[in-house]
Amino acid sequence: MQQADVSGDCCRPIAARGGDPCGLPLAGLRPGGAKEGRPPRPRVDCGSLDMRIARDGSWHYKGSPIGRKELVCLFASVLKREEDGSYWLETPVERGRVEVEDAPFIAVEVFWRQCEGRQCLTFRTNLDEMVTADHDHPIRVAVDPRTREPRPYVKVRGGLEARINRAVFYELVALAEPETVDGREVLGVWSEGVFFPIDDVPAEAPRAHRRNGRGENRAPRAGAK
């Protein structure tokens, strides 16, 4: 499939495109911004940008993949999510709606480390953004209503999440330990002193010994980052 070429005009000023503010994805996506002392212009709503983020994390424009990672990172830097769940690219002068099939990012790697004696789990996304799971960046696991398979996510920023890929989720399972949450036995992982449930404890499984209940002073298991 031919890669979409959106690198030519998409970041040029509106005036250079004949005054058409919505001809290509977001003219305001460029260095600079409003000049000092000049009042901001009303933001133009471009509607749908015919841009899609596929379930595998790839970005597409007018049906073709965007091959330049630098450009994808630039678009991702102005991606927002509204309270109704819709996704938008927003600059000081324009905004346009983007279709997201699942989550806008994919967590492709996890790193285990000690943070002042506590276990910390830091994820790397497919766009090389690093995020450490904590109170403001929770891990959550949804269940597919059709297949009943777990769909794990970690919050990256704002309302944006990264779907944790299968290999990384298996690493979390290897690090999991049992805890009681609201009277229910669950398996989960600790990061920055916060416990994140990821599954129920199997009824037939014996209760594992808890080292200290907070993942502290714990050696990484084989295969953990």
Helix content: under 10%
Distance between the termini: 35 Å
Structural class computed from helices and strand pairing: mainly beta
Question: How many strands in all?
Answer: 15
In terms of per-residue confidence, which ranges show pLDDT below 50 for 5 or more consecutive residues?
1-24, 31-35, 207-213, 217-225
What would you say this structure looks like, in words?
The chain has a six-stranded mixed sheet. It has a six-stranded mixed sheet with strand order 9-8-7-12-11-10. Helix content is 8%, strand content 40%. β13 (177-181) and β14 form a beta hairpin. The two termini are 35 Å apart. It has helices spanning 69-76, 166-175; strands at 44-53, 59-61, 64-65, 79-81, 87-90, 94-100, 105-115, 118-125, 130-132, 139-143, 150-157, 160-164, 177-181, 184-191, 194-200.
Considering the chains and any ligands shown, give keywords for the structure:
single chain; 225 residues; mainly beta; 6-stranded mixed beta sheet; 8% helix; 40% strand; elongated; disordered N terminus; disordered C terminus
